[in-house]
Amino acid sequence: MAEHLASIFGTEKDRVNCPFYFKIGACRHGDRCSRLHTKPSISPTILLSNMYQRPDSITPGVDAQGHHIHPRKIQQHFEDFYEDLFEELNKYGEIESLNICDNLADHMVGNVYVQFSEEEQAANALKNLTGRFYAGRPIIVDFSPVTDFREATCRQYEENVCNRGGYCNFMHLKKISRELRRQLFGRYGKRHSRSRSRSPYRHRSYEERSRRSHSRKYDERDHYYESRSRGTEVQALATGGVGAGVPVAGEKPKSS
């Protein structure tokens, strides 16, 4: 019996545990689901729920003021966010994958899945991110049961044939450019060394960012990025709320 239960755990045959939550880390029914959503007590993957906020989140291709946004600017906004987040998360351990959902359904929109090489690194990230803020919004962070993103990803979306659109229940993962992926993860997808020398593009130092945004001071309690290059406002992780300042390169994050 125990072997049978183990073999069907998290599958459609499991009448107790939700297969979608087990596979995707999210379920459209939420607390109303008739099956259990059992959060793991430890996992190499953490979920930052609804963290990424698209600039055209209300109407696709249009900003909050009703102005048309060029797709290139939307992609740049996303890549700025991805790069900033990667640099912050990289403080806690080796990142195996950083995936961000492009879905529109409430339970998946803007979800960020971070898979570390070790469970202890994910635990360290969860501990340090709990109670912090991003862009004035609290970070909702939990361990996620997702460890195989091939099973969680919509294959039809990757082939540009998904007819469910943004409300598909499988992950529609937003892609970054190959150049940025190489710069963050290392050439050919190999994990980069912490002691690597950064490329000219990657070395958009905090000093340079400070020059672009004029005067910004570091505050250990409350800090965020006031602005990024190309006019994109990308705010960084804060420990107690939104304040003024920018973290110094190499600064260790404070524990909550």
Automatic annotation (TrEMBL):
Residues of the RRM domain: 44-146
Biological processes per GO annotation: mRNA splicing, via spliceosome; photoperiodism, flowering
Annotated protein name in UniProt: Uncharacterized protein
Function field: Necessary for the splicing of pre-mRNA. Probably active at the 3' splice sites.
Bias (Basic and acidic residues): 204-231
Zinc finger annotations (C3H1-type) as residue ranges: 12-40, 148-175
Molecular function, one GO term: RNA binding
Pfam families attached to this UniProt entry: RRM_1 (PF00076), zf-CCCH (PF00642)
Lineage top rank: taxon: Eukaryota
CC per GO annotation: U2AF complex
Organism: Anisodus tanguticus
Bias (Basic residues) ranges: 188-203
Keyword terms of this UniProt record: DNA-binding, Metal-binding, mRNA processing, mRNA splicing, Nucleus, Repeat, RNA-binding, Zinc, Zinc-finger
Family matches, as InterPro entries: Nucleotide-bd_a/b_plait_sf, RBD_domain_sf, RRM_dom, RRM_euk-type, U2AF_small, Znf_CCCH
UniProt xrefs under PANTHER family: U2 SNRNP AUXILIARY FACTOR, SMALL SUBUNIT
Localization: Nucleus
Residue ranges, compositional bias (Low complexity): 234-250
